[in-house]
Every structure is written in structure tokens, then in C-alpha cells.
Amino acid sequence: MAEISVRAGGAAGDGIASVGEVVSRSFSRLGLNVFGLNAYQSVIRGGHVWFQARASREPVHSQGDRVDVLYALNRETVDIHGPQLAKGAAVVFDPEKFSVAAGDLPAGVAPVAIPTLELARKYTTQSILQNAAGLGATAFLSGIPLETLQTVLADSFGRKKGEIVDWNLGAAADGYAYARSHASASDRAVGPTGPAKLLLAGNSAIALGAAAAGVKFLAQYPMTPASSIMHWMAAHSQALGVVVKQAEDELAAINMAIGASYAGVRSMTATSGGGFALMVEALGMAGMTEVPLVVVESQRSGPSTGLPTKTEQGDLNMMLGAGQGEFPRAILAPSDALEAFQLTIRAFELAEAWQTPILVASDLHLSESYMTIDRDAISLDVDVPSLFQVEPNGHDFKRYAYTESGVSPRSLPGQPGLQYVAGSDEHDEKGHLLSDVRAGVPAWVAERNRMMEKRMRKLEGLRAAIDAPVLEGPADADLTLVAWGSTIGAARDALGLLAAQGRSVNLLAVRAVYPIRPEAFTGPLGHAKRTLLVEANFSGQFGRLLRAETGLYLPDRLLKYDGEPFYPAEIAGRAVEVLSHGG
Amino acid sequence: MAGSSAQVPSVVGTPLPLVGKSTTKPTWCPGCGDYGVVAAVEMAVKRLKIPSHNVVIVSGIGCSSNLPHFLSSYGFHAIHGRSIPVAEGVRWANHGLTVLATGGDGDGFGIGAGHFVHAMRRNVDLTYVTMDNQIYGLTTGQASPTSMMGQKTKSTPTGVIENPLDPIALALACGATYIARGFSGDVKQMADLIAGGIQHKGFSFVDALSPCVTYNKINTFDWFRQRVYKLDAAGHDPTDIHKAWEKALEWGDRIPTGLFYTVDRPTYEDLEEVLAAGPLALQPAGLRGKDRLLDEFI
After folding, report:
1. Which chain A residues have a beta carbon less than 8 Å from that of B284?
2. Given a cut of 80, is residue B25 above it in pLDDT?
3. B286/A213 CB distance under 8 A
4. A470-581 sits in which CATH class?
5. Which positions in chain B touch A421 (Cβ < 8 Å)?
6. A421 with B75: Cβ contact below 8 A
């Protein structure tokens, strides 16, 4: 497989994320498939952060397992990542800052000393340009042509012109030239392969999908790793005509979104687990008042504040159970940027069709990793039907009319003759309360049942509407991996590793997590010879859901809750274990 | 776009009806102060001749929050404490609508206090009427944020030991641009204050002293009648913020009612540039033909 992985590491504040993004984008411009992982901590300065850009001619679905070029901004980076370097790898460092001897590194790994600070001083006394020089050297070693790097660098300054841009381009050229005359490029370097691809973080793909689906209102409270959805939308607010409201808290955010949706615009909110916990009561109100709503829940390590900058799939139980009482909902879990775009659109369609909240379950790994999408694979031509669908009829409007599907006609404030009160209390077809003087009176007890059953019929509609899981890989495999959401990526890469070892393994990739259509699972899993459940949480929350809904029990598991993303090799390793030792 | 507040045709030949009573009768206790408030809301909106389909009344939870059910406008009877954010969302989705939020003192100053504070500082153009009875009524009589020191309630059998919140002073501190206090015993004044609030561009707050006849035996109609006096009759200048502060802090033997303070300041909707193109609900949605947006990801 023609692929190369470049890692950059240093302290927060060293500009590692920018370096990683420039390297990733250089690769995507060359037409390569890219996966970029940004690993950081909950500090603004200091600590240890790193970024991995993996590029290949073949599709890549995770950060992979190796490092071919390491750009180290401090000695700690060498100490932390050095042991993982493979034979043939190179370590770029500045000897003015610290030294790296060949003996400090695994056999076959070459230290490549680049005087980044000295090269930068040609332009300015400030150390700010050292990364441009370092990027130049890293690009040479990684097979990125200088002009590609320079174009990406220049673009990263936007419309800005002037000496700071020129200095950066100059320092990059100098770093590139210095590396060329003192080292040789990695023999894993991959050349240009085709037209440039789109490179998006998962959250950008979610925001773009929302915009394509016609979102007009986003209310959000800052919380890692969901914040960048708001950042993207805010930056495009005026161009796209989307009102972006940073609310005073998550309670306000979801209630604002519900109010806006009730009044006739497609609305959403986004948060992480802590914020979602605050939204729970209002989520039920959206269910009760039958207001369409999209909520993005980008999970991070819990419980409580947990590991705010680390990933987990630990909120599934909460998403399933959020809200007192019962109301219809669906949970969609995209596995990559393209699906984040597509499933966010789908979430809006489902929310509107079924007049109920739909959750998009992301996590830090999906939200903040960078992934490529073929330019032709994405279309912004999404049909956005008008919300004004009920004709005024003058009188006797039944907003919550009993229907076979459970979906009732919905009027919007401003439409004459169709006034109603959307109530969080139980109500009759016209929205009149059942909760006070009618509560417990036999005729209205029956009415409560009818209204509850009407709403819950929508869950059956959703169950029939959502996508079945997809079996990837050989049909008659010895082992079937089961994964949902962002974990699908590394699991899919593991299939490749296992196939290369002659193992017959396939993957049941679950993107519509709830509601479960039992036959969609009992089919493929009922025939599986063995299974391995792979989830990023402690207790196997999806496994439990699957058992509850289908009776299928998946005894063999790979559960991870250390905050780190899955690596293909660890999934492949566990798969081999299950295959060889029976679990 | 199939229709809108501006584009939906009226039923031919009939004038669009104004807000009136709905078919649902109020379920408040006989003598409850909230009857005066719903009457005042109805009078105010009628007087301004805003058709009922262009009015949205949002409430939270509590006795007083049942109010939207009793009028013929659109309504949203939300969860406890969240009337304001829901109302804000309605307003931003369609600022062609007249939006009121109503509720009680527990709903607005207790569980919903955070939203109250921020709605005022952002000067969103809605009218917020609190039916302030200084007690939790629907939960059968616990202390509220405006219960007076020493008041004995089910949750404070030996008396309240927290200072009551002063809604008028809080509104002044937070930058509300129309701040008034009404009294259920004077429906005409209350209607004037609410109508003024609806006409005012910006966050209008009307604290409606609305006695609970069942659970608050201290702050009764008589208790208020002995104390209230009208600010306008007393020559108060509602454009003077220093005088407004002075009056806001007055509570005890004499309780001022009327308009404490008003000022013109741009509303949130004025400053949100996306809304300059008209109500959001009527603006085009989606990204059709905007493929160039993808260039930033190349």
C-alpha cells in the first residue's frame, strides 16, 4: 500500500495543529486520501500535543499505526514518539534547541538536523518562522513538492499579502533546500495521483451538511469537541443567511432551537456530553410538542468533565434514555467526514418528516479529525422543501390530529386560522391540556393513551426509515467485527491488515444506531461464525442495546476507554486473538 | 415559498380576527391575580390590532404559565423556566411576529433566572410579563425567589431566611429597555403597560404583582392596595435611570407601579445582520448553486 504518515509534535502554542493541517492539505492537494489526527490537551500553552497526517493512494479510514517522518519541536516529542518509529523513518529537529543522536532512536531511524531557527533568522528575529522552515524540510522528506507546500501555506494566510507571507514562503523554500542537500526523501513518499480532494474536519462536514439541509438557526454553547461546528457556521453566517446564536448555556441553546423550529426554520444545536446532559429535559419537550430538531452530540471522555480533549463513545446510553417518559427519536452515527455531511442532511430530513428530535452522534475523533472527500462525491444540491405545508382552513385546526403514521399537519405562527398551543403537558388533538382538570377522568385517560400511541407510531416509522447496517468485506468470514460511528474507520483499516495476514474477517458497520430494526442485525450476525464487538466505552453500550433489541449477545469485545482513538493494529490484534484462542 | 405571515392570503372577505379568548376556560383558583393579567394581555393586544395569527405567547410551567391556552393566538407552553429562550428562538425565526413570554416568579426568577438576565442584556424585542405572586402555587406553596424575609411556607416553616430578589432592580442592572410594574388589581394600568411594552422596540419587562389567594396569605390584594401608588401620577420621569434606580429600590410601605424606565437601544434583531434580509422563516434555505463554498476545503 503506497502510503506515508507524517507526525509533528511539540508543546501547545508551538503551532502543531497548523503544521498538521498544512501537511494534510498538501497531501490532499496532491489527490491523496488523507486522515489527519489532532491530539491535544486541555491547556492553551505547554504540555504535549501532536498531529498525525496519514496519506495514501488507497482510501484511509484512520490515523494508521506508523510514523515515517517525525517533526519534533521539542525533545519530549522524540522521547514520546521515538519508540514507535519504524525502520527507514526520519526525525526532523533543530540542533539549536536540543540534540538527537542516532543512538537515541530505534535502529534504522535517521535524525535529520535542520537549523530551522537559523534559517528563519534570515527574515526576522522572531522565532515565528521556524515552523515554515521545519515544514519545508518535512515536506521534502515526505515527498511533497515545494510548490504544493508553498501554495497551501500562502492560502492559509487567506487574502493577506505582504512580507509575512513572503517570509513564510522563503523560509519554507530554505528548509526544503537544506533538507534536500543533507538528507534523502522517505522511500515511502507518495507522488501526486489526481485532482485535489476536499479536506474537512468532521465538524466542518456536519456544519456543511446542516447548511445544505437548509438549517437557518444554530444555537450552541461552547464545549469541546462540538465548538468548531459553531465556529464554521458563524464564519459563514452572513453568506449563508444562518443565524448563529451563542447561548448563555446549553439549556438556552436547545430551547432557542426548539422555539425557532416551532416558528418555521430548520434548527439545530450541538454540544458534547456535559451540555447534552443539560439539554435532556428540553429534548423531551421537542418530542412532546412534536417540533423537528437536530441535536449533534459530539462525545468526549466522561464521566463528568472527564478528559475534555480525548475521545469516547460513552454517551450512547444517555442519548438512548435522555428525557423523562418515552418519545420517538433516532440516533445516527457517521463514521467519516462524507457520512457526517450525508447523515446530518438525513437527520434534518428525518426530524422534519417525523416531527421529533434526531440525534447525530459524533465524538472527538470524528469531529476533530481531518478526512478527505472526492470533490465529485459531494453535492450541495439538496432539496429543501418549504415548511409552509398546511393550507389555512379557517377553523378547528388539529395540530396533533391522530393519523396512521403518527405525523400530524403542522402550521407555523403567522398562518391565519391555524393557531394552536404547543404544549409540553399532555394534550389532545387540538393541543388542549389533559394535565389539569381532565387528568384521570376516564374519557381523557383513554385520550392520553391515544396521543401516546400516536407519537410512538412515529418511532415505528423511523425504524422502517433508517438505514440498515452494512456488511463490509468477505460475506462468509471467520469473524465479524461490529462497530458504530467513528470506530468504523479503524475497524475498516484493520480488515486490510487482517486480509494481508490471510485472515477472513468482515465488518458490520452501524451508522443508524437507533431505532434498531432487528432483522437488519439478526440476518448478518445470525450467520456470523464469530463476532467481535468494538466500542470506545467501558461497558459495551451498543452491545447492550443490540442484545435488548434483538436478543443477540456479542461475547467477544474490544472496549476502549482510555481516551485514545482505536488503532487498526490493536483491532487486528484482538481479532487474531479471538480467532486463535476463542476469545 | 408557499406562504408566510406576509404572504398567506386572508380568508376571502373576512377580516383576520384579533386576539380574544380561546375556547379553553382558565383553571385558576377563583380570585387569582392571574385573571387580571390575562385580561390585560388580551386588552393590550386587541388595542394594538395585531391579528391573532401574528401573536405568539410563550410560557413556562406554573399556574400562570397556563395563560397561552386561554387566548386565541399561537402559543408555546414550554417546560419550567425556559419560556424566554423558546420565545427568543421564535422571535429570531420570524421577527415579523409579536412575541410575548409569560410565567411566574419561580419560573422566571428562580429556575429561569439565567435566561432572564441574558435576554435583557441582548435586548431581544419581546415582552415578558411575570405573574409575580411571591410563592410557588402549582406545587402547593413553597417559598419563591421573591418571597419576603420571614415568610412561612411549606418549605420554610420557620420563615424565609434569604433576601428576596428585586426584579425591577435586576432588570435595570441587566439593561432591559422597558421596565414596568403592574398590579392585577388595576387591569387598565396593566393593559397600558403591556401595550407599551409590545410597542417598545427591545426587551420589555412587566412585573405583574398577581396575588395568590390560596398559598400567600401575606401579599394579598388588600396588602397591595394599601401600598401601591402610580409612578406617573407621582411625576416620575421614566427616561431618568438614576430616578429609576431610586424607585426600583422602593418596596415596603409604599410600592410604586407603572413605568420605571425606558430607553431606545438597538435590538438584537436590529444588530443581527442576517435578519436584515427579512424574517428568517421566509429567507431561502439550503446551498443549491453555492458549490463554490467547497473551494475552501480544497
Report:
1. 241
2. yes
3. yes
4. alpha beta
5. 68-69, 74-77
6. yes
Q: Tell which residue, A370, A363, A567, has the closest CA to residue A485.
A: A363
Contacts of A273 (CB under 8 A, 6+ apart): A297, A299, A300, A302, A306, A314, A315, A318
CA angle at A81 for the pair A142 and A169, rounded to the nearest 5°: 35
Taking CA atoms, A383 is separated from A216, A346, A412, A514, B286, in Å, by: 15, 11, 20, 25, 8
- Cα nearest neighbour of B68 on chain A: A421
Mean per-residue pLDDT, B244-263 = 97
- Cut 0.95: pTM above it: yes
Backbone angles phi, psi at B254, to 5 degrees: -125, 135
Note whether A257 contacts B: Cβ–Cβ < 8 A.
yes
Q: Which CATH architecture has domain A3-196?
A: 3-Layer(aba) Sandwich (3.40)
Spatial CA neighbour of B134 closest among B224, B66, B67: B224
Question: For residue A242, what is its C-alpha cell?
Answer: 444562518
Among the residues of B95-227, which ranges form H helices? Answer: 105, 113-121, 167-174, 187-199, 221-225
Does the structure's ipTM exceed the value 0.85?
yes
What's the pLDDT score for residue B9? 40
- Spatial CB neighbours of B160, under 8 Å, sequence gap ≥ 6: B143, B147, B148, B149, B150, B151, B152, B153
| Grid cell digits, residue A255 | 430551547
* CB contacts, 8 Å: B68 with chain A: 421
**A200-377 CATH fold:** Rossmann fold (3.40.50)
Distances in Å between the Cα of A544 and the Cα atoms of A551, A552, A563 are 9, 9, 21
Q: What's the pLDDT at A512? A: 97
Lowest mean pLDDT among A121-125, B41-45, B208-212: A121-125
Contact residues on chain A for B69, CB-CB shorter than 8 A: 421, 423, 432-433
pLDDT in tens, B78-106: 999 999 999 999 999 999 999 999 999 99
In a domain, B241, yes or no: yes
The answer to whether residues A252 and A387 touch, using CB atoms and an 8 Å cutoff, is: no
For residue range B288-298, list pLDDT tens digits in order.
Answer: 999 999 999 99
Q: Are residues A420 and B1, on separate chains, in Cβ contact within 8 Å? A: no
Q: What are phi and psi of B193, to 5 degrees?
A: -65, -40
Strand pairing category for A69-72 and A46-56 = unpaired
* Residue reference for cell 437601544: B265
Say whether A214 and B285 touch across the interface (CB within 8 A). Answer: yes
CB contact under 8 A, B281 and A265: yes
Instruction: Tell me which residues of chain A, numbers 463 to 492, contact chain B at a CB-CB cutoff of 8 Å.
Output: none
> Which stretches in chain A have pLDDT values below 70?
1, 392-395, 582-583
Nearest to A238 among B61, B66, B274 (CB): B274
Contact between A216 and B283 using a beta-carbon 8 Å cutoff? yes
Which of B74, B83, B139 would best serve as a mutation to test chain A binding (most A beta carbons within 10 A)?
B74
pLDDT of residue B3: 36
Q: Which of residues 144-173 of A touch B (CB under 8 A)?
A: none
CA distance, residue B15 to nearest chain A CA (Å): 11
Q: Provide, as residue numbers in chain B, all residues whose Cβ is less than 8 Å from the Cβ of A200.
A: 297
- C-alpha distances in angstroms, A387 versus A355, A384, A475, B1, B51? 12, 9, 43, 8, 21
Amino acid at A323: G
- Best probe of the A interface among B86, B138, B268, by most A CBs < 10 A, is B86
User: What pLDDT, on a 0 to 100 scale, did the predictor assign at position A582?
Assistant: 63
Residues of B whose CB is below 8 A from A388: 1-4, 8
CATH 3.40.50.920 residue ranges for chain A: 470-581
Residues of chain A with CATH 3.40.50.970: 200-377
Count: domains in chain B:
1
| pLDDT, position A546 | 98
Share of chain A residues as helix, strand and coil, in percent rounded to the nearest 5: 40, 20, 40
